[in-house]
Fold this protein.
Amino acid sequence: MKKIVQWCCLISLSAFLIGCGKATPTQVADNFWQAVQKKEVEKVKSFASTESQKHINLTSQMNSNIQVKLGAAKIEEDRADVAMHIVYINKDPKKSLDMEIDAETLLVQENGEWRVDLVGTSESIRRSSLETMFEVYNKAKVQSEKMGQTQNAPLKDGLGK
Protein backbone atom coordinates (compact mmCIF):
# COMPACT_ATOMS: atom_id res chain seq x y z
CA MET A 1 0.00 0.00 0.00
CA LYS A 2 2.83 2.36 0.88
CA LYS A 3 4.45 1.78 -2.55
CA ILE A 4 1.19 2.53 -4.33
CA VAL A 5 0.91 5.86 -2.50
CA GLN A 6 4.54 6.67 -3.36
CA TRP A 7 3.93 5.88 -7.05
CA CYS A 8 0.78 8.00 -7.09
CA CYS A 9 2.68 10.90 -5.51
CA LEU A 10 5.53 10.51 -8.02
CA ILE A 11 3.12 10.43 -10.98
CA SER A 12 1.21 13.46 -9.65
CA LEU A 13 4.43 15.41 -9.14
CA SER A 14 5.64 14.50 -12.63
CA ALA A 15 2.35 15.61 -14.20
CA PHE A 16 2.49 18.87 -12.24
CA LEU A 17 6.06 19.62 -13.37
CA ILE A 18 5.26 18.84 -17.00
CA GLY A 19 2.20 21.10 -16.83
CA CYS A 20 4.31 23.94 -15.44
CA GLY A 21 6.76 23.82 -18.34
CA LYS A 22 7.73 26.98 -20.17
CA ALA A 23 5.66 28.15 -23.12
CA THR A 24 6.74 27.05 -26.58
CA PRO A 25 7.47 29.60 -29.35
CA THR A 26 4.14 28.73 -30.98
CA GLN A 27 2.24 29.30 -27.73
CA VAL A 28 3.94 32.66 -27.18
CA ALA A 29 3.27 33.72 -30.78
CA ASP A 30 -0.37 32.68 -30.46
CA ASN A 31 -0.80 34.62 -27.19
CA PHE A 32 0.97 37.62 -28.72
CA TRP A 33 -1.30 37.75 -31.80
CA GLN A 34 -4.43 37.28 -29.70
CA ALA A 35 -3.38 40.28 -27.59
CA VAL A 36 -2.69 42.31 -30.76
CA GLN A 37 -6.15 41.50 -32.10
CA LYS A 38 -7.74 42.57 -28.80
CA LYS A 39 -5.50 45.69 -28.65
CA GLU A 40 -4.23 44.74 -25.18
CA VAL A 41 -1.09 46.88 -25.13
CA GLU A 42 0.30 45.71 -21.79
CA LYS A 43 -0.21 42.07 -22.71
CA VAL A 44 1.48 42.63 -26.09
CA LYS A 45 4.44 44.20 -24.29
CA SER A 46 4.67 41.21 -21.95
CA PHE A 47 5.28 38.92 -24.94
CA ALA A 48 7.76 41.29 -26.66
CA SER A 49 11.51 41.11 -26.27
CA THR A 50 13.19 43.81 -24.19
CA GLU A 51 15.10 45.12 -27.21
CA SER A 52 11.92 45.30 -29.32
CA GLN A 53 10.13 47.45 -26.78
CA LYS A 54 12.83 50.12 -27.16
CA HIS A 55 12.32 50.48 -30.91
CA ILE A 56 8.65 49.97 -31.62
CA ASN A 57 5.63 52.10 -30.85
CA LEU A 58 3.30 49.23 -30.01
CA THR A 59 0.04 51.12 -30.31
CA SER A 60 0.74 51.98 -33.95
CA GLN A 61 1.35 48.30 -34.75
CA MET A 62 -1.91 46.98 -33.30
CA ASN A 63 -4.65 46.00 -35.71
CA SER A 64 -7.83 44.20 -34.73
CA ASN A 65 -8.77 43.68 -38.39
CA ILE A 66 -6.49 40.69 -38.85
CA GLN A 67 -6.78 36.94 -38.63
CA VAL A 68 -3.60 35.02 -37.90
CA LYS A 69 -3.12 31.31 -38.41
CA LEU A 70 0.14 29.92 -37.07
CA GLY A 71 2.08 27.10 -38.64
CA ALA A 72 5.19 25.13 -37.78
CA ALA A 73 7.97 26.51 -35.61
CA LYS A 74 11.66 26.24 -36.48
CA ILE A 75 13.88 26.46 -33.42
CA GLU A 76 17.62 27.10 -33.62
CA GLU A 77 19.28 27.57 -30.24
CA ASP A 78 17.91 30.85 -28.81
CA ARG A 79 15.92 31.90 -31.91
CA ALA A 80 12.68 30.60 -33.37
CA ASP A 81 10.56 31.34 -36.43
CA VAL A 82 6.86 30.51 -36.36
CA ALA A 83 5.24 30.44 -39.79
CA MET A 84 2.02 32.43 -40.03
CA HIS A 85 -0.68 33.29 -42.53
CA ILE A 86 -2.21 36.73 -42.00
CA VAL A 87 -5.46 37.95 -43.49
CA TYR A 88 -5.98 41.71 -43.29
CA ILE A 89 -9.73 42.26 -43.29
CA ASN A 90 -10.75 45.55 -44.83
CA LYS A 91 -13.92 46.86 -43.22
CA ASP A 92 -14.30 49.61 -45.83
CA PRO A 93 -14.58 48.01 -49.30
CA LYS A 94 -14.21 51.44 -50.96
CA LYS A 95 -10.59 51.69 -49.85
CA SER A 96 -9.05 48.38 -50.91
CA LEU A 97 -9.42 44.62 -50.91
CA ASP A 98 -8.58 42.17 -48.16
CA MET A 99 -4.97 41.05 -48.33
CA GLU A 100 -3.35 37.75 -47.37
CA ILE A 101 0.34 37.23 -46.67
CA ASP A 102 2.61 34.51 -45.39
CA ALA A 103 5.32 35.65 -42.99
CA GLU A 104 7.07 34.61 -39.78
CA THR A 105 6.72 35.58 -36.16
CA LEU A 106 10.33 35.78 -34.97
CA LEU A 107 11.15 34.97 -31.35
CA VAL A 108 14.22 35.12 -29.14
CA GLN A 109 14.93 33.61 -25.77
CA GLU A 110 15.37 35.92 -22.81
CA ASN A 111 16.12 34.39 -19.41
CA GLY A 112 14.92 31.02 -20.68
CA GLU A 113 11.57 32.33 -21.95
CA TRP A 114 10.48 32.97 -25.54
CA ARG A 115 9.72 36.58 -26.50
CA VAL A 116 8.54 38.05 -29.80
CA ASP A 117 11.15 40.00 -31.76
CA LEU A 118 8.88 42.82 -32.95
CA VAL A 119 11.49 44.42 -35.20
CA GLY A 120 12.20 41.14 -37.00
CA THR A 121 8.52 40.18 -37.16
CA SER A 122 7.56 43.62 -38.55
CA GLU A 123 10.29 43.30 -41.18
CA SER A 124 9.06 39.83 -42.16
CA ILE A 125 5.50 41.16 -42.53
CA ARG A 126 6.67 44.23 -44.47
CA ARG A 127 8.77 42.12 -46.87
CA SER A 128 5.92 39.64 -47.41
CA SER A 129 3.42 42.47 -47.93
CA LEU A 130 5.60 44.03 -50.63
CA GLU A 131 6.07 40.68 -52.34
CA THR A 132 2.32 40.09 -52.29
CA MET A 133 1.60 43.57 -53.69
CA PHE A 134 4.09 43.02 -56.54
CA GLU A 135 2.50 39.65 -57.32
CA VAL A 136 -0.98 41.21 -57.40
CA TYR A 137 0.29 44.09 -59.55
CA ASN A 138 2.01 41.75 -62.00
CA LYS A 139 -1.08 39.54 -62.31
CA ALA A 140 -3.26 42.60 -62.91
CA LYS A 141 -0.79 43.91 -65.50
CA VAL A 142 -0.79 40.60 -67.37
CA GLN A 143 -4.60 40.46 -67.30
CA SER A 144 -4.79 44.07 -68.48
CA GLU A 145 -2.37 43.38 -71.33
CA LYS A 146 -4.36 40.30 -72.37
CA MET A 147 -7.60 42.28 -72.32
CA GLY A 148 -6.01 45.13 -74.26
CA GLN A 149 -4.73 42.75 -76.95
CA THR A 150 -8.05 40.98 -77.42
CA GLN A 151 -10.04 44.22 -77.39
CA ASN A 152 -7.70 45.96 -79.83
CA ALA A 153 -7.32 43.00 -82.21
CA PRO A 154 -10.47 43.77 -84.27
CA LEU A 155 -9.46 47.44 -84.47
CA LYS A 156 -5.98 46.58 -85.75
CA ASP A 157 -7.45 44.12 -88.26
CA GLY A 158 -9.83 46.78 -89.54
CA LEU A 159 -7.07 49.36 -89.94
CA GLY A 160 -4.89 46.95 -91.90
CA LYS A 161 -7.40 46.66 -94.78
